[in-house]
Amino acid sequence: MSDHDYRPKSKVGQWFNDRLPLLTLANHLTDYPTPKNLNYWWTFGGILTFCLITQIVTGLTLAMHYIAHADMAFESVEHIMRDVNYGWLIRYIHANGASMFFLAVYIHIFRSLFYGSYKSPREIIWILGIIIYLLMMAAAFMGYVLPWGQMSFWGATVITNLFSAIPLVGEGIVTWLWGGYSVDNPTLTRFFTLHYLIPFLILGLVVLHIWALHVPGNNNPVGIDIKKPSKDTVPFHPYIVIKDGFALLMFMIVFAFFVFYAPNILGHADNYIEANPMVTPAHIVPEWYLLPFYAILRSVPDKLLGVVAMLSAILILAVLPWLDTSKIRSAVFRPLYKQFYWILVADVLILGYVGAMPAEGLYLLIARVATAYYFLHFLIILPVLGFKEKTIPVPLSITEPVLGGSPNLAAARNKESKLE
Amino acid sequence: MKNLSKLFSIIILIIVSYSYSFAAEKAEYLKTDWSFKGLFGKFDRASLQRGYQVYTEVCASCHSMKYLSYRNLAEPGGPEFSEAQAKAIAASFEVTDGPNSDGEMFTRPGKLSDKFVMPYDNVKAAQAANGGAYPPDMSVLVKARGGGVDYIYSLLQGYEEAPSNVSLDDGVYYNKFMYGNKIRMAAPLSDGLVEYGDGTNATVEQMSKDVTTFLMWSAEPHLEARHQMGFKAIVYLIILTILVYFSMKKIWSRVESEV
Predict the structure, then answer these.
(1) pTM greater than 0.90 (yes/no)
(2) How many CB pairs under 8 A join A and B?
(3) Which of A218, A263, A227 is nearest to A116 (CA)?
């Protein structure tokens, strides 16, 4: 794995390492040459690892007290909140942890979009990331069902019903998913099983994601290939470790604020009402992190096409490395792309907003325009931009412009400081 | 650094605006000072005890509170009745227990470990007694309503004569804070309905505040512990963040690059 030969100092270490090169791996991870110009947007990889581990640890603890049964699930959650020692803390960390996880993953994804981290030779890292993101959505959706509140039940009903849009076999698939003719106990128990399984799949994919990252090494804000190790890099430890640690602590302060002072603000009040198949809530809305896709789903009048649009909105990301025809990675050197990038950010935020609103009147119109623009961005603007755009010359190395005082870097700095 | 603080303020702004867009769709609720809000928010014990009295003398005849036990009444962070008081409260209720060695169910006075006795045996019985409407369980009611405590507090005081253009069926009442303005519960409170032991004047406003405080506690029995721990956790994190920041500056000073 490592570019340089590593040999443990002690005899025992050598004996062990010859048989299982764990020490070589540890050495690779600490010495891993990292571009020294990584900014704070790059700290979210570490933050996401923290989020995943937090969810797994709190989730395991909750599973010790939770009862996956339609008649007892809601009560067992109240038992956790009231009678389990610090159960309220564990549950609030887990529930808000999901939101924090998505917050971090969206920043991580949009960082990649801005700096072109998905481009060659990092396509596999990117695709693994999209798979992780899909699994996260599945895990979060099923996790939201487990407390068996009104939004759990009706959210599960709405989302599983989407499969009925599939021609011919749709209805059969829905019955198969439910394990019956409506969302009920069999649905709950299988969702619990899958909710328990998926995080470990994600963990495995995260290992692959990091492995694939360590082959070409990190992209960086300038977006150029750098020699490793060189004057442009620093060893991962201690430089990146301490910087990631600092950013993680900042993130944890925000996290703690939600857990301790606004633990229910990101959830829906209806989920504190026990599931009742006879009463449909006035508005069925998913959690905030799924709202942009919910808006896309509802903006298409046809059910099947709506589902196709929603899935395409995610899957289109997987082919992004080939849709973006520009050879320049970083938006710092792509004046036009940078503007379209921020329009896309606004577009997704607007989609999220209208996703929370009733699908009627002006909201529906806005949702349709925003949905159309979303696809326009990836299918038309990005491919064309690569050919048409006049980019700013890119420096040869990270240090070169600093030492040489090249005008290119001055331009780059200028652009970057405008970003800040 | 500038970048990062800007990032976090954007994050908070987005989340807050999202949640406000949900919250800001209803009528303006009546406002009052809740002692349990804020960084150090705590319950007002006397208000909780009065609130329990209102619940048990007024609400409990229709509304269950099935996730609470009598022992909770004596636990720290709650109304904090003395153990003897809580025992006496529990003993004032008849609890069905059993089956005994003869296979018979029997009743006995309540104990601290018993759950709050339910007014009806089941949902159907509750509906039958209330013209088809089910009085919701109150254990987590505050968290199950969009406006939370402000909504409950307002609703209790929101009964009015129906405007002339609104026709009401039998057993339906007009409430300006209710969703759709029609509610199946008659105005539950009237001035002087309960007699407070501590001499507080039992106005509708006072009783609304007390019982809503009690409902907040019943929904979040560990709220005080949460606020206390939260403050410590955040202060700890801030101090650690500052220390790590300076360590980072020190470490990065070895390379000619900005952090």
Answers:
(1) yes
(2) 116
(3) A218
User: Scanning the structure block, which residue is given the tokens 């698939």?
Assistant: A173
CB of B252 less than 8 A from some CB of A: yes
Inter-chain contact B8–A250, Cβ cutoff 8 Å? yes
Give the model's pLDDT for residue B27: 65
Pair of tokens at residue A5: 């030969």
Cα-based distances in Å from A230 to A25, A39, A53, A233, A235: 21, 18, 33, 5, 10
Answer whether B123 touches A (CB < 8 Å): no
Contact call for B237 and A249, based on CB within 8 A? yes
Which amino acid does the sequence have at B40? F
Residue B18: pLDDT band (50, 70, 90) is: low
Joined together, the tokens standing for residue A393 give: 């010359």
Interface test with A, best of B252, B253, B254, B258 (most A CBs within 10 A): B252
Q: Which of B6, B11, B20, B239 to probe by mutation at the A interface, max A CB count within 10 Å? A: B11
Least confident of A90-104, A280-294, B18-32, B235-249: B18-32
Nearest chain B Cα distance for residue A103, angstroms:
8
pLDDT grade, residue B210 (50/70/90)? very high
**Rounded to a whole number, what is the distance in Å from the CA of A320 to chain B's nearest CA?**
25
A282 Cβ under 8 Å from any chain B Cβ: yes
A269 to B2: CB separation less than 8 angstroms, yes or no: no
Per CB-CB distance under 8 Å, the chain A contacts of B22 are: 356
A88, A234, A420: residue with CB nearest B222:
A88
How high does pLDDT run on average in chain A? 93
Please tell me the distance from the alpha carbon of residue A407 to that of residue A393, in angstroms, as a whole number.
10
Is the separation of the CB atoms in B53 and B244 below 8 Å?
no
Q: What is the mean pLDDT of residues A300-326?
A: 96
User: Closest residue of A to B9, CA-based?
Assistant: A254
HEC assignment per residue over B203-227: CHHHHHHHHHHHHHHHHCCCHHHHH
User: Contacts of residue A251 in chain B, CB cutoff 8 Å?
Assistant: 8
Pairing of strands A233-235, A33-35: antiparallel
Give the residue from A378, A341, A363 showing the smallest Cα distance to A291.
Answer: A363
Q: Which of these, B124, B129, B174, B244, lies nearest to A252 by C-alpha position?
A: B244
User: Distance (Å) from the C-alpha of residue B149 to the closest C-alpha of chain A?
Assistant: 12
A250: CB partners within 8 A, 6+ apart: B4, B8, B241
Give the separation between CA A258 and CA A83, rounded to whole angstroms: 22
Residue B19: which pLDDT band, with cuts at 50, 70 and 90? Answer: low
Q: Contact B241/A249, CB-based, under 8 Å? A: yes
Distance CA A409, CA A70 (A): 62
**Cβ atoms A112, A321 nearer than 8 A:** no
Q: Is A148 exposed, middle or buried (0-12, 13-18, 19+ CB in 10 A)?
A: buried
Spatial CA neighbour of A136 closest among A92, A99, A177, A178: A99
Task: Look at residue A124 and tell me whether its pLDDT is greater than 80.
Answer: yes
Confidence of residue B15 (pLDDT cuts 50, 70, 90): low
Q: Closest Cα of chain A to B201: distance in Å?
A: 32
Across the interface, which of B7, B18, B143 has its CB nearest the CB of A40? B7
Taking each helix axis from N to C terminus, what angle separates A291-299 and A335-356, rounded to the nearest 10 degrees? Answer: 80
Rounded to whole angstroms, the Cα distance separating A329 from A326 reads 7
